[in-house]
Amino acid sequence: MNRFFKGFGKGVSDYGPALSFIFKHNLGWFFLVPIVFNISLFIGGFAAISSLTDYIQAVVLKSTSLENANFFGAAFISGLLSFGIYIVLKIVFFFLFAYTGGYIVLILMSPFLAYLSEKTEKILTGKDYPFDIQQLMRDIVRGVLIALRNALIETLIIFLFFIVGIIPVIGFFTNLISPFVLLLIAAYFYGFSFVDYVNERQRYNIKQSVAFTRQNKGLITGNGFFFALILLIPYIGLLISGFIAIVAVVAAVISVKEIKDSQQISIENGIH
């Protein structure tokens, strides 16, 4: 447990050096990517949500015959029902985005995050990665697959917490700790996505990448913590998360390099 918290603190603290690294090495232009992403999300995503809300309201009013009702109070009931639907859907959308919005960001921004991770490692190690469109496509596909895998596993865990949460007595205590536990679980899976870009370049298959993240659970969770935390802010969190992802990817490269440098030193000392 002590190792977990030590690693967690390291993962969180690496955000500071990562942010400095970004501006020191003229990588700040990557922050333009979330801006474009957010504009697209605002125009397309929220318009789609509003249209869906209007559609559901129309269907419900029509099915209840309130749409053309003319009895006393019909307009009030119709308005109250429409407002209730609006509020319920907003709450549902908030929780939906809080738990899945991060993966939407990771999937859509995958090409840029893969390139940024590669660029950061090149600056840190001097190792050149010649541009290869096929390799970039493999990085993107793997990033999307990892995000989908993690989203599925996290959804199953959330579902299990929900089932346990409705059990008398046990559910009461489960519901007390579940927000904190689920936050850490989300942080772990997000951190896994950020770190996997590095592991993929070192030719780790997914099984090996999973083993690496399990060996460094604290560090991985710390790396994804701010990304998971910011998503809990209604609506605004999703807009900010893209910027956090940029910093998290750079922090992941820095963290992984330090781990593997430390392992290499240990191996060399063992040999000597």
Walkthrough of the structure:
Helices cover 85% and strands 0% of the residues. It is mainly α and 272 residues long. The chain has one domain (2-38, 100-271). Helix 1 packs across helix 9 (217-230), helix 5 crosses helix 7 (170-201) and helix 5 runs parallel beside helix 10 (236-271).
Characteristic terms for this protein:
272 residues, mainly alpha, globular
Topology:
Blueprint: H1 2-13, H2 15-24, H3 32-63, H4 74-108, H5 110-125, H6 133-165, H7 170-201, H8 206-215, H9 217-230, H10 236-271
Helix pairs in contact: 1-9, 2-10, 3-4, 3-10, 4-6, 4-10, 5-6, 5-7, 5-10, 6-7, 7-8, 7-9, 7-10, 9-10
Instruction: Specify Rg, calculated over alpha carbons.
Output: 22 Å
Distance between the termini: 32 Å
Write the H/E string, N to C: HHHHHHHHHH
Low-confidence parts: none
Task: Please give the number of β-strands.
Answer: 0
Residue-averaged pLDDT, rounded?
81
Q: Describe the sheet with the most strands.
A: none
Supply the helix-strand structural class: mainly alpha
At a glance:
With 272 residues, the chain is mainly alpha-helical. It has one domain (2-38, 100-271). It contains ten helices and no strands.
